[in-house]
Amino acid sequence: MSAMNRTTDDLRDRGRTPPDQSRLCIHTATTRPLPLEAAVDEYVRAGVRGITVWRDALAGRSARAAGDRIRRAGLEVVSLCRGGFFVNADEEERIVAIEENRSAVREAAELGAPLVVLVCGADPAVPLPLAREQIRTGIEAVLPLASQLGVKLAIEPLHPMYADTRSAITDLATANRMCEEIDSPALGVAVDVYHLWFDPSLETEIERAGERVLAFHVCDWRTPTRDLLTDRGLMGEGCIDIPAIRGWVEAAGFDGFIEVEIFSTEYWALEQRSYIERIVGAYEAHV
Amino acid sequence: MSAMNRTTDDLRDRGRTPPDQSRLCIHTATTRPLPLEAAVDEYVRAGVRGITVWRDALAGRSARAAGDRIRRAGLEVVSLCRGGFFVNADEEERIVAIEENRSAVREAAELGAPLVVLVCGADPAVPLPLAREQIRTGIEAVLPLASQLGVKLAIEPLHPMYADTRSAITDLATANRMCEEIDSPALGVAVDVYHLWFDPSLETEIERAGERVLAFHVCDWRTPTRDLLTDRGLMGEGCIDIPAIRGWVEAAGFDGFIEVEIFSTEYWALEQRSYIERIVGAYEAHV
What we know:
Two copies of one chain form a homodimer. Chain A is α/β, with parallel strands linked by helices. Chain A has helices at about 10-15, 35-45, 65-70, 90-110, 130-150, 170-180, 195, 200-210, 240-250, 265-270, 270-285, and strands at about 25, 50-55, 75-85, 115-120, 150-155, 185-190, 215-220, 260. An eight-stranded parallel β-barrel of chain A has the order 1-2-3-4-5-6-7-8, surrounded by seven helices. In chain A, helix 3 runs parallel beside helix 4 (about 90-110), helix 4 (about 90-110) runs parallel beside helix 5 (about 130-150) and helix 8 (about 200-210) packs parallel to helix 9 (about 240-250). The two termini of chain A are about 25 Å apart. The model of chain A is unreliable at about 1-5 (pLDDT under 50). At the A-B interface, helix 1 and helix 5 of A face helix 1 and helix 5 of B.
């Protein structure tokens, strides 16, 4: 077969080594219909070893007690999602956001999560260069507390289709530059294949990030994608070359959990136990 | 007002010089309900001076006669949209695509269009690096005929949300690199604000493109964007800093038409004469 006839699946299969199942982590947002306690039980039942807790899943609970319960069940808390949203045309709101991020860092410490993932924020009324200044200011304001409590922060570059309201940081190069400028051991990046898969400089930028890669998120890009927010696919259902990107983050030194983060109205409508089994299968076959 | 309190509108207003109305061009796809002849009449009525013709608008017509009619009405043909779609897992289909692009070039020559805009193509079954090779092969196969007929080709980088099925070229850097490597006077780029507005390297890459900027497309990014394909906004309705980007393409030497390309089920449902008047107003106020 000539080079011009190879297709995605051929290339993906070539030399792929499935990741160890002990590295599988699921986000509570992936199984959103399940309350935290049920999610923990179902993940354990399916042999999953890590959990990333979304803050809404902690509502009405003690973070410390939730963390203890998670660990007693045999799961590791991988990260707390999510902080950020530092960008606002209104200065008062930016101060509120910084306080909210400090609360998230305290919550992470209580939960026993070593990391808070940052969806850095955007506001259609704030031009992107200014938004990036606001993000930097916000991160710098939160980092001292994070360092003090032993919690790291990860800038997660988002897909450019979220540049109006969710993140003015839409590529890994910009996240890397900000990390280099701030230069704190408590600051790194989260690599999510959904947001970055199309970037021709991704391999180079992951190498540049090196040990600053603090998290690795997987799902897939469906064709067609029917909704900008809630139509992500299970690994293997789309066109993202996840094994290649996993290879790049591992070459950069990352050996942590591989986190399944899927927002999908279609999957949230399923019976969640069998959905979690499908996630485990997709992880084994397509990551 | 401090730098941190400036908002998009403040920055946009600062020093903006409205573009000359003689540079306004509308794409037939923007007013899709109108047959070509009606579009021509309505554009002229509204004082528009340029038209970009989509190939579907020529169905059942002689391109030469259509071009003559357009010019007699007082409009200039700015470009023909669109060629491209060079990427396919199937080699036979790639050969068909190249022939189809040669037909588009002949059609442009007959119409009197100096430019064919390329939506370069993508296929979820073809990995992006390979897709980019197929695009380069396709462009190189079409360029000799284009040069011979005096028609230029413009690579239009598309928004990354189209990287699965429409274009494996999702940033201006990649388009520039391909132009530099192929190095033909008949090849350049099309800058569409919708696809590129969020890119921190956009100003630099437009400067790098220089005289290779062959087309400039405008519309706006709406919040929320309700559909990935057909929910573009009129200029001024969204968060794109169009005057800034116009400044960059003009600094690069571009003084051609400013093309309004809006796919919108909402606007296609309107009475098109008053919609065209709104386009003219939005062009004067927000470009």
